[in-house]
From TrEMBL:
<dbReference type="GO" id="GO:0033539">
    <property type="term" value="P:fatty acid beta-oxidation using acyl-CoA dehydrogenase"/>
</dbReference>
<dbReference type="InterPro" id="IPR014731">
    <property type="entry name" value="ETF_asu_C"/>
</dbReference>
<dbReference type="InterPro" id="IPR001308">
    <property type="entry name" value="ETF_a/FixB"/>
</dbReference>
<dbReference type="InterPro" id="IPR014730">
    <property type="entry name" value="ETF_a/b_N"/>
</dbReference>
<feature type="domain" description="Electron transfer flavoprotein alpha/beta-subunit N-terminal">
    <location>
        <begin position="19"/>
        <end position="220"/>
    </location>
</feature>
<dbReference type="InterPro" id="IPR014729">
    <property type="entry name" value="Rossmann-like_a/b/a_fold"/>
</dbReference>
<protein>
    <submittedName>
        <fullName>Electron transfer flavoprotein subunit alpha</fullName>
    </submittedName>
</protein>
<dbReference type="Pfam" id="PF00766">
    <property type="entry name" value="ETF_alpha"/>
</dbReference>
<dbReference type="InterPro" id="IPR033947">
    <property type="entry name" value="ETF_alpha_N"/>
</dbReference>
<dbReference type="GO" id="GO:0009055">
    <property type="term" value="F:electron transfer activity"/>
</dbReference>
<dbReference type="Pfam" id="PF01012">
    <property type="entry name" value="ETF"/>
</dbReference>
<comment type="similarity">
    <text>Belongs to the ETF alpha-subunit/FixB family.</text>
</comment>
<dbReference type="GO" id="GO:0050660">
    <property type="term" value="F:flavin adenine dinucleotide binding"/>
</dbReference>
<dbReference type="InterPro" id="IPR029035">
    <property type="entry name" value="DHS-like_NAD/FAD-binding_dom"/>
</dbReference>
């Protein structure tokens, strides 16, 4: 019988402590999803008895930033402040994160699975020679047997993420530290702000490497226009538009009309109920690049596994069949209303209410009904 393969050991895992997050602070803006990451880290810390730390990178970071993070759950904040870190650059940010991780040795490191997190987390994991579990929706403690070394590892972080279909996968990094993951926005509710919380603030000097500074230069910075409506992640009521709005069994489709109806419904609810509303789209509709919707249905509005995960009180799916990738993004919605002519559309499995009617007829009826009830 062949002997288990012996792999080079990681440094002593017992020397690694605390659960870290990466706080996204870009051009003077503190991303709200960073508070969700702190909530995720707080859960891990409660399972391990460790402290929660967070790293902030930037230039001339005001004192209010670390204080805001402490009030939301951080036990301490590590600040790397340098003029070369004023604007986001994946190479310099990764370099700074790797430096502080090597110096202070966090046990786990949580990033947000957004544009920045997906860009920088793999670079950090690679340089630290550890693993990366992406798009996590929960965290647990567990044990795993690793056959390649013939050993059972206990008290390892189980990084839970959605897999294909309805399966859930648990990713372990038993032999390397830190255990790095990215968490999907929308799955961890930020902790309430506690003005009485106290914490420590550490300021670290970044040892910039010349080759990292000269890899490329920023020639111009263009800020994309803000998308219409409230952010999908914070909305109470969301209308999701699917490819069904450009297909119609009778009559010509008019996707602009559907968009206008969705806007009218949202405006009505925002005015009468004072709730936050937003409009999103399925991946199929985003990728279709419908000419009449090109200035509104953008990748930033995509809901699903490769888009945003939302958690509204009510989600109305209009012309969306319900592929598993879309279901992953709406599974935290409290109530789901599906408008679809196909009574067997996959979304029926998740829908609280199913309206089997032509959406071009159902939406005006829904608007008029809401208008009467809210008068």
């Amino acid at each position: 019988m062949s002997q288990p393969q012996v792999l080079p050991d990681t440094p002593d895992a017992s020397s690694y402590r605390d659960v870290w997050t990466f706080t996204e602070y870009v051009e003077g803006e503190l991303f709200q999803t960073s508070f969700e990451a702190l909530a995720a880290a707080k859960k891990i810390a409660s399972l391990t008895g460790m402290k929660v730390g967070t790293v902030v990178i930037g230039y001339k970071i005001p004192d209010e930033v670390p204080q805001a993070l402490i009030r939301r759950g951080a036990d301490y904040v590590v600040i790397v402040d340098d003029v070369e870190l004023e604007r986001y650059n994946p190479l310099t940010y990764a370099s700074a994160l790797v430096q502080v991780a090597q110096e202070r040795k966090p046990w786990a490191f949580v990033f947000v699975a957004d544009d920045i997190g997906r860009d920088v987390a793999p670079r950090v994991a690679y340089r630290l020679k550890t693993g990366l579990a992406t798009d996590c929706i929960d965290y647990e403690m567990g044990e795993i047997y690793q056959g390649v070394v013939g050993q059972t590892f206990k008290n390892v972080l189980a990084q839970v993420r959605p897999d294909f279909a309805s399966r859930i996968a648990k990713i372990f990094t038993p032999r390397h530290r830190p255990q790095i993951s990215s968490m999907r926005p929308g799955y961890f509710k930020p902790l309430p702000e506690d003005p009485s919380r106290k914490g420590e603030i550490f300021r670290v000097k970044w040892s910039a490497k010349e080759e990292e500074l000269n890899k490329f230069s920023v020639l111009e910075v263009k800020r994309l226009p803000e998308e219409e409506g409230v952010e999908l992640l914070s909305a109470d009521f969301v209308v999701g538009l699917g490819l069904g709005i450009v297909r119609r069994t009778r009559g010509d489709p008019d996707p602009k009309y559907v968009l206008d109806m969705a806007r009218k419904i949202n405006e009505l609810l925002a005015q009468r109920l004072k709730v936050k509303t937003a409009i999103g789209a399925s991946r199929a509709l985003v990728w279709a690049e419908v000419r009449e919707l090109k200035d509104f249905i953008t990748p930033g509005r995509q809901i699903g596994q490769t888009g945003k995960t939302i958690s509204p009180k009510v989600y109305v799916a209009v012309g969306i069949s319900g592929a598993i990738q879309h279901k992953v993004g709406i599974m935290r919605s409290r109530k789901i209303v599906a408008i679809n002519t196909d009574p067997e559309a996959p979304i029926k499995d998740m829908a609280s209410y199913m309206i089997n009617e032509d959406l071009y007829e159902a939406l005006p009826k829904l608007y008029e009904s809401l208008k009467r009830r809210l008068e």
